[in-house]
């Protein structure tokens, strides 16, 4: 058991160390693939628009949470245009500091900048219409991901949604020693979602990304 705790501690501390050395730019956030940012945002917008609006079962537009927000790329281009207020959470303080400048005048609608690893983060109860979790679940162990999703569920407003958008491997769990993360296949991600007591209400593959990178899937959960 001691070994497991030690492994877990180094898994998180190595990731923090990796991100501390990454430049606080869009290219840095996207591992050198800054050119895919617009394709990514447009895909996410089309996905989200299926759920937002007025009427039965629709998700509100009052407050969103950007998990693993980095410098606020998703907040700036996806969430602030759609929601009245946004909160950001990221483990790297330098990124959050940079976000305050990067977001420009619209950044005044950001209410909270939380510097915290998601394994320790507790969303405020009943606050969020959307909790957006992109390219960060690989930095959580299975049990921490399940626990985090359960806490996110408590953070949702009525008809709120949790959205995971992430790389999926072809088969099994593929570790990345460089940034201390893992990439799981879709079946494993789905099983962890179900373990957290959530249902997948919609799922899509992001199209038009470069061939050489992992497939990226987006899952809406309630």
TrEMBL record:
This protein's GO CC annotations: cytoplasm; nucleus
Any single biological process term in GO: spindle organization
Query: Where does the source fall among the domains of life?
Result: Eukaryota
Keywords assigned by UniProt? Methyltransferase, Nucleus, S-adenosyl-L-methionine, Transferase
As for subcellular location, the record says: Nucleus
What one GO molecular function would you report for this record?
Answer: N-terminal protein N-methyltransferase activity
Major location category of this protein: nucleus
Q: Which reaction does it catalyse?
A: N-terminal L-prolyl-L-prolyl-L-lysyl-[protein] + 2 S-adenosyl-L-methionine = N-terminal N,N-dimethyl-L-prolyl-L-prolyl-L-lysyl-[protein] + 2 S-adenosyl-L-homocysteine + 2 H(+); N-terminal L-seryl-L-prolyl-L-lysyl-[protein] + 3 S-adenosyl-L-methionine = N-terminal N,N,N-trimethyl-L-seryl-L-prolyl-L-lysyl-[protein] + 3 S-adenosyl-L-homocysteine + 3 H(+); N-terminal L-alanyl-L-prolyl-L-lysyl-[protein] + 3 S-adenosyl-L-methionine = N-terminal N,N,N-trimethyl-L-alanyl-L-prolyl-L-lysyl-[protein] + 3 S-adenosyl-L-homocysteine + 3 H(+)
Q: Which Pfam families match?
A: Methyltransf_PK
Tell me which InterPro entries the record gives.
Answer: MeTrfase_NTM1, SAM-dependent_MTases_sf
Q: Which family does it belong to?
A: Belongs to the methyltransferase superfamily. NTM1 family.
| PANTHER family on file | AD-003 - RELATED, N-TERMINAL XAA-PRO-LYS N-METHYLTRANSFERASE 1
Q: What is this protein called?
A: protein N-terminal methyltransferase
Organism of this sequence: Oryzias latipes (Japanese rice fish)
Lineage of producing organism: Eukaryota, Metazoa, Chordata, Craniata, Vertebrata
Which gene is the coding source of this polypeptide chain? NTMT1
